[in-house]
Amino acid sequence: MRAAIVGLAGPVLAPDEIVLLREQPPAGVILFARNIEAPNQLARLMDALRQVLPPESVLMIDQEGGRVARLRPPHWPAHPPAAALGRLYGKDRAAGMRAAWLTGALIGTMCGEAGFDVVAAPVLDLGLPGADAAIGDRAFGPDPRMVGRLGRSFAEGLLASGRQPVMKHVPGHGRAMVDSHRALPRVETAHLGADLAPFVYNAGLPWAMTAHILYPHWDAERPATLSETIIREIVRGRVGFTGVLVTDDLAMGALTGPPEARAMAALAAGADLALYCAGQGKANEAVLRAVPEITPPAAARLARARAMAAAARTELDVAALAAERARLLSA
């Protein structure tokens, strides 16, 4: 398998995509709203992907709750944003923690029923006043301890459903004054211990996603996704993360250069997997032909992530969990 996860163009697996995925099999595929119309259509697409991809390839989805949700009403239930869970925690810590676990379990069960292995959540960035709205209510709140605890509860709920959570965006997107979808943010401060704290608290999670942000105190030239210094010394070192490290979407406006060059630079910096989400056939082909096979250490981390989710999986009564969360959030 190639060391990349790629997006698809639309709701049906196109013939050229089938050929590419067979010839240059990626470590995974990620789906977005453009790929999802209804349960029956999604089931056909997932079946087609499983027939084409290697058994170890993952199927990933961004499903945080709130505005970042690819499975949406009327076909799938809505879930609250992280900020709503943070507000509940502010009133009643135990209730907030339980609601976070319930939300992770409910989202994970929904994603699992649809066939996904990996859910790109929780967001562990701080929700700070004055920052760009790209994070906003996707964050649990401004307090590092609260974010870390709620993030862990949410992730444990995902694991209970058998899904693999992805904490994001390490080493922290909360101070960014620019949306990295559009341009490269700079975080000038040298005092980033609070931003790192939620990731340190959750360093045992199976996956993490990098931030396309320049932190001049650590690396004056390269954003975190492309910085060997930040990945080695901060993500793997100071945070202590030992799981699968995937980039944020390399098609975002924060980065420049050809898609394959971005992917190769991220892998050279120490990422395990390059994520390219745009679903553009020529770009996907360029990325998959350029990147190497996943390394043995990355393969071992992927295997540990699968094993962690399998070991944590338990039987869940979705109706009872949804009713309990509704009571907590309405209190």
Task: Describe what this molecule looks like in 3D.
The chain has 331 residues and is of the alpha/beta class. It has a single domain, classed as TIM Barrel (Alpha-Beta Barrel), CATH 3.20.20. It has helices spanning 15-23, 39-52, 82-91, 93-114, 144-160, 193-201, 228-238, 259-269, 281-290, 296-312, 318-330, and strands spanning 2-7, 26-31, 58-61, 63-65, 68-69, 118-119, 164-170, 207-210, 244-246, 274-276. The chain starts with a strand and ends with a helix. The model has no long low-confidence stretch (mean pLDDT 97).
Shape verdict: globular
Number of structural domains: 1
CATH superfamily: Glycoside hydrolase, family 3, N-terminal domain
Strand order of the largest sheet: 9-8-7-6-3-2-1-10
Spell out the key features of this protein.
single chain, 331 residues, alpha/beta, TIM Barrel, eight-stranded parallel beta sheet, two-stranded antiparallel ribbon
Give the helices and strands, then pairings.
Blueprint: E1 2-7, H1 15-23, E2 26-31, H2 39-52, E3 58-61, E4 63-65, E5 68-69, H3 82-91, H4 93-114, E6 118-119, H5 144-160, E7 164-170, H6 193-201, E8 207-210, H7 228-238, E9 244-246, H8 259-269, E10 274-276, H9 281-290, H10 296-312, H11 318-330
Parallel strand pairs: 1-2, 1-10, 2-3, 3-6, 6-7, 7-8, 8-9
Antiparallel strand pairs: 4-5
Summarize the structure.
This protein has 331 residues and is α/β, with parallel strands linked by helices.
